[in-house]
Amino acid sequence: MSVLLEVRDLETRFYTEDGVVHAVNGISYTMNEEETLGVVGESGCGKSVHALSIMRLIPDPPGKIENGEVWFNGSDLLKLDEHTMRSIRGADIAMVFQDPMTSLNPVYTVGFQIMEALKLHQGMDDNQAHDRAGELLAMVGIPEAQQRLDDYPHQFSGGMRQRAMIAMGLSCNPRLLIADEPTTALDVTIQAQIVDLVRRLQEKFGMAVMWITHDLGVVAELADTINVMYAGMIIERGKVRDIYKRTAHPYPIGLLGSLPRLDEEPGTKLIAIPGLPPDLLIKPVGCPFAPRCIYRVDQCLEELPVLENTGEKDHIVACWQWEAIAERNR
């Protein structure tokens, strides 16, 4: 498969009254056509900010993309003028946000908001856009779709609003769909329906999907490749089987250890990661996970580890002790 998206040394900062927040700190990766990439990590690790940086939606001020390149379809998105970037958003790259109630405009009907993208990017007239919007709502499983086009967001349930957002994202047949924690506010049954819906639509349209979440269970079911983020950095990346079976970094080991498993003995205690996430106002000198890590040595506190290959194809990790950790966890 050919490369669809390439991120190089992306850095994003927020300049606040308290200081500079180092939100994204030099991340690099590639994403192929039709691939599903899971981006995981705890709240505040830079998952959403990195996606907003790709879309050029960082509010300036206080935010600023300080460095990096984002190559998509032969162009560096960070160097395009705003008019060209606006033509890419929604058409070639679409984004589904975490809270559909704040993403949808409460004073416009759901149909109007879907039709707006169709008229802007597809050149449809009102009648064509109206018919297509109804088809899209029906495709994402909303009953009586044509009639529901005249409803306002508050008249939809949480799951239906998220389906409407997915319909809006898919309206122009994007090559890449970025889903930013789209199931976080939904109950477990609706979460499963949304995950299944995205998988089926991905197969139908042949698009790539970036799924941003803190739910490791979701990415195990959906993703081909996983980026594990911590303190604005990618600290491990690999195929799903490598991250879940042969992880070599103590942070994802802790994340996986905190999940209940069906194959464990009753009464098995979950593992908690000690300590607190790092203060992003302070740029780390050594490994940002070192204060919470039981495997740390002096080098971890003094020198920032770089991503290196573990020997498994496409499996890279940023940890000075990864070989000893991998051996211990086999």
Q: In a few lines, what is going on in this structure?
A:
By secondary structure, this protein is of the alpha/beta class.
Features:
23% strand, 8-stranded mixed β-sheet, globular, 330 residues, 12 strands, 4-stranded antiparallel β-sheet
Describe, in plain words, how this protein is organized in 3D.
With 330 residues, the chain is α/β, with parallel strands linked by helices. Helices cover 35% and strands 23% of the residues. The chain has an eight-stranded mixed sheet, sandwiched between helices. α4 (110-122) crosses α5 (126-139), α4 runs parallel beside α7 (158-170) and α5 packs across α7 (158-170).
Q: How many whole angstroms does the radius of gyration measure?
A: 21 Å
Measured between the Cα atoms of the first and last residue, the distance is 31 Å
Helical content (DSSP H or I, runs of 4+) = 25-40%
Strand content: 15-25%
Class by alpha and beta content? alpha/beta
Secondary-structure element order, N to C: EEEHEEHEHHHHHEHEHEEHHHEEH
The helix tally amounts to 13
Q: What best-fitting shape do the alpha-carbon axes yield? A: globular
Low-confidence stretches: none
Mean pLDDT: 87
Strand order of the largest sheet: 6-7-8-3-9-10-12-11
Number of strands: 12
Largest sheet report: 8 strands, mixed
